[in-house]
Every structure is written in structure tokens, then in C-alpha cells.
Write a structure and sequence with these properties.
mainly alpha
Length: about 120
């Protein structure tokens, strides 16, 4: 149950990142580096529903994370947050259609190995 709570929080945070990226892409027309830090850009961001949805998902993720932290030591729970990196790379490929170089996949594999090792330890 504890690991499911942690993983749910991380999954929702990953979905929030993708939602925010899609929202920003809508504001910038998909151009990387196209967002300026000025009142007009801030208004555009604030009026984009996907940005608000991403922020709401972050809020839900944070609530689940708080419940997870109440049940586990931080040194057990926090390494699972690295699953976010794994999810973001996967979501980037399948949702955003980004290209991921092989060396990045090697790094993702190392993260997965580390998470499996941490999961084998007591959580209190």
C-alpha cells in the first residue's frame, strides 16, 4: 500500500509535468525557448487551461506525497521520486514524440536499478 501511494504521487507529478509542457507548447506554438518573461507571456500562461490542469495535478500529487511521508521514512520514500525522471523520459517519447538518445536510456536503467534496491529495504 505504501509503495502504491508513493508511485501514485510520482505518476501524477509526471502527468503534471507533461500537462505543463503541453500548456507551454500551446502558448509558444511549440517553439523551444519561445517564452519570454514579460506581462504578456505571463497572461498567456495564466489563461491556458492546460497550465492550470498541470498545477492542479501537482497539488494532488503533493497531497498524496504528504500521506506517503506520514507512513515512511524520507530516506525510503524520496528515492522513489526518481521514478519521475523515468516517467518523464517515457512520456516525452510517447506523448511529446521527443527523441531520447541511447545514453539517456542507460541513465534511466540505472535509476530503475536504484529504485528496485531501495524498495528491498525496510521503510521505517
Amino acid at each position: 500500500m505504501l509503495i502504491a501511494l508513493i508511485v501514485s504521487s510520482v505518476l501524477i507529478a509526471g502527468a503534471a509535468q507533461i500537462t505543463l509542457k503541453e500548456g507551454v507548447n500551446r502558448v509558444t506554438g511549440g517553439q523551444e525557448g519561445g517564452l519570454r518573461f514579460d506581462p504578456e507571456a505571463l497572461r498567456a500562461i495564466a489563461s491556458t487551461p492546460l497550465v492550470w490542469a498541470g498545477l492542479a495535478l501537482f497539488g494532488i500529487s503533493a497531497i498524496l506525497w504528504i500521506f506517503a511521508l506520514s507512513r515512511a521514512s524520507l530516506s525510503f520514500a524520496y528515492p522513489f521520486a526518481a521514478l519521475g525522471y523515468v516517467l518523464i523520459v517515457a512520456f516525452s517519447v510517447f506523448v511529446l514524440h521527443e527523441t531520447v538518445p541511447p545514453l539517456r536510456w542507460v541513465g534511466v536503467a540505472f535509476i530503475c536499478i536504484g529504485i528496485v534496491l531501495v524498495a528491498q529495504t525496510p521503510h521505517a
